[in-house]
Design goal:
Two copies of one chain form a homodimer. Chain A contains 18 helices and 15 strands. By secondary structure, chain A is α/β, with parallel strands linked by helices. Chain A folds into two domains: 7-19 and 81-115 and 244-451, 3-Layer(aba) Sandwich (Rossmann fold); 26-42 and 49-70 and 117-231, Rossmann fold (3-Layer(aba) Sandwich), CATH 3.40.50.
């Protein structure tokens, strides 16, 4: 047996160790994710149809279920070098504090101004938009990280950027707008009266705090009705999981460098961008029968797509203007109770992850909000980093597992994704400190009502 | 000539390359910084006198003008490994954008939750307080980074932490309080009615927005009147510059690794903690005649201690309860016009830096606020990082110099300190975007009036 190398607190890859290609997990999936369907005909969306909404090269990536590795263009690799590699951190302080025999690692994606992993796909999507000669892009943002990331990428490349921000986040995070403005983006709270779909939603649900689903509808409408614009999305899509595979690839390279084999990999899951990216190469090994890992998705109990949703075709947006996707969903008009993890408020889940979950290749758990913030604070005080509420869902489950190992004595190796920082979430932390956190969990009756409105697809 | 190695975008030291001792620049100064004086007797403060306010071991460090290297205790080095080394970034993107032949590097200290370099001294001071068996510490904070840093260090070590926060920052940065609360600290806006000196200042200046000088007085009063407490300070003091030398030491090791010799080193200067830390080892070489560097301090035009102050003994605080320090000062009751660089609003300057400046070993420039934010935004859009207003003072001068090199063709190597991030400064950025920035510069008459009230020391 090789002598174990001393493992540093933080593993940073050298530039020449950084991934040169994204990994497309679909290539190794026996059961491919179900195709997007045209909402009118219920036939698989063609590249031509998708091209009206998305950039050409991204459409190719969206539809490509076969190419295992897709080269990262040099321009994107150079941009990655500006804020990557992200560190893989050995949580020595946390292990010591918990007195656990478990070995805890986290891949920390928060060391950039977007505050999360979102920049990995934002720069890729903006790059292809620029390459196609577009004027600009439109998008939605929930927690604000994706909007910020896209603003940064667009500022760098000189593209116009229009962001529809879920109203509840716009109000809870007043300063996010200002960051996006610093990067030259225009930001509109959604639903708004700037689009037909926004006006319709406002008329039907006056006083709504919005949802990712609403904001997507608005952003898509603006993209398809303005020449030189396309829509870009920060999660759910296959292309996004492809770009985010850089997280998992770096993690795997760093672990391999020190001969570390994880037993359990944990990630928070909203639309699936972080989780899908983090687990991709590990899932690939699992699919190819080369290794086995326990993979855990963590979602908020207030928006439990995996654990209480159904696997069915549904609209990706509230306005029903987007293609249908087969995914674990709560129904496209589901609007969760106010939950401060804005990035986890989406009604559906990545089709890739949905298929993997349906095939029993990963687990999912739902956790209530107050418990998540307790874990966040416990983590912050020991590891220094103030985590985003989204990321803290993964922290909660990692801490629980490490504490369980303390009882059993298991020397389990746990890796979790720490997707970002909570600097713009202090309203949420304040509510937590004041004991005013909302832990509302939807009833079975409520979920059944939303489910009854799913589209009927043969 | 040795072949130039390819320089990565970010240079991270390996753990075994990290400094094991702080560097005490006083050991190499021919003209030592003037001693702190007892405000009553005007005699140099003894260790015993200082021990009533500061921790014992920190008093030793404060008074030690001779020991060149002071070992960093293992516990602190382990804590440093949690968030250090900080990257030395080669600003390739900025160079490209500016089309300058200058080579630009910045040492980025913002990748931790305090958002700045302040954690480097906070953990050291908290460590010695803990070692001495104290219950807790008190301090002041301006921009909030120091208070956050100290809260983090105290949470880690299990010490109580009371923070007096300059009222204008408390109001401009509502969420900073919440971060400190997450780390278990209590935060009071200063001046407050919780101390005698606070009540006095409020009576004399009703409606004052506060200053670091006021907040220091309050924190010192609480420390000396509560058994088991001592006061700690985030800047100005010799001990702080000692701890912050870790910034410069890491920078030097990283540069040496790639055979890079800087021509110019730039840092923002409020009380001098960052600048003093960054330049220490370079200044040491300069003092020993081993190398020469152009060293530039950048301060806000609204609070121009170096460029328009006098070098004289003055009180460190508004309440005049602290020892007298010989430094470049605007007068201890000087309260600058609202300036969003809360960390640069101090009326005085580190005695070490003051002596070096008086000896002609460094330069200083003052820059107006709007120009600083213009530079901040220009930098953010190219290098990704949203800088703190304080740090942006250094950016402004670095950009000016790089643009000058574009004209002259000089391939100058510029290193500047990027002390932190501006995530909690979005009120300031909003004012900038709205064109409502205050560029008030004190008149000569105003400065003369404050100067007239300096204490008379023979």
């Amino acid at each position: 047996m090789a002598e174990e190398k001393k493992i540093p607190y933080k593993i940073y890859l050298e530039e020449n160790e950084m991934p040169q290609a994204w990994y497309n997990v679909r290539a190794d999936m026996k059961n491919k994710p179900a195709p997007l369907l045209n909402p009118g005909t219920h036939q698989p969306m063609t590249a031509e149809e998708l091209g009206g909404v998305f950039c050409e090269e991204l459409v190719q990536q969206e539809l490509d279920n076969d190419t295992r590795y897709i080269e990262i263009p040099q321009e994107i690799r150079d941009f990655y070098k500006m804020y990557r590699p992200s560190p893989l951190v050995r949580a020595y302080c946390l292990e010591e504090k918990l007195q656990t025999p478990a070995k805890i690692y986290y891949k920390f994606e928060g060391n950039n101004t977007s505050g999360s992993h979102k920049l990995n796909s934002a720069i890729a999507q903006a790059y292809y938009a620029k390459k196609q000669g577009l004027k600009g892009v439109t998008t939605e943002t929930g927690a604000g990280q994706w909007g910020t990331a896209l603003s940064m990428a667009c500022a760098y490349l000189g593209l116009d950027c229009k962001v529809y921000m879920v109203k509840v986040s716009y109000e809870q995070k007043p300063f996010r707008r200002e960051v996006m403005r610093t990067y030259g983006a225009s930001v509109v709270p959604s639903p708004s009266d700037t689009t037909a779909v926004g006006r319709k939603i406002l008329a039907e649900h006056p006083g709504t705090t919005g949802s990712l689903g609403c904001a997507i509808s608005e952003a898509v409408e603006v993209a398809v009705s303005n020449p030189g614009y396309r829509y870009v999305l920060g999660s759910v899509l296959n292309q996004v999981l492809l770009h985010q595979s850089v997280i998992g690839l770096e993690t795997k390279i760093a672990l391999d460098k020190y001969n570390i084999k994880p037993d359990m990999i944990i990630g928070c899951a909203g639309g699936g961008s972080n989780l899908g990216g983090l687990i991709s190469p590990f899932m690939g090994e699992k699919l190819r029968g080369e290794a086995d890992y326990e993979i855990v998705a963590v979602e908020p109990a207030s928006c439990p797509s995996f654990t209480r949703g159904v696997y069915a075709y549904d609209f990706c947006d509230t306005g029903m203007v987007c293609p249908l996707a087969k995914m674990y969903t709560l129904g496209s008009d589901f609007i969760p109770a106010p939950n401060h993890a804005g990035g986890l408020r989406y009604h559906g889940m990545s089709p890739i992850l949905s298929q993997l979950y349906a095939d029993g290749l990963m687990k999912a758990v739902a956790v209530p909000q107050t418990a998540v913030f307790e874990a966040a604070e416990e983590f912050a005080r020991v590891e220094g980093i103030l985590p985003a509420p989204e990321s803290s869902h993964a922290i909660k489950v990692a801490l629980d597992e490490a504490k369980r190992c303390r009882e059993t004595g298991e020397e389990k190796t746990i890796v979790f994704g720490l997707t970002g920082t909570g600097y713009f979430d202090m309203v949420a932390y304040e509510k937590f400190h004041d004991g005013k956190m909302d832990d509302y969990i939807p009833t079975d009756e409520e979920l059944a009502a939303f489910r009854a409105r799913l589209p009927q697809v043969d």
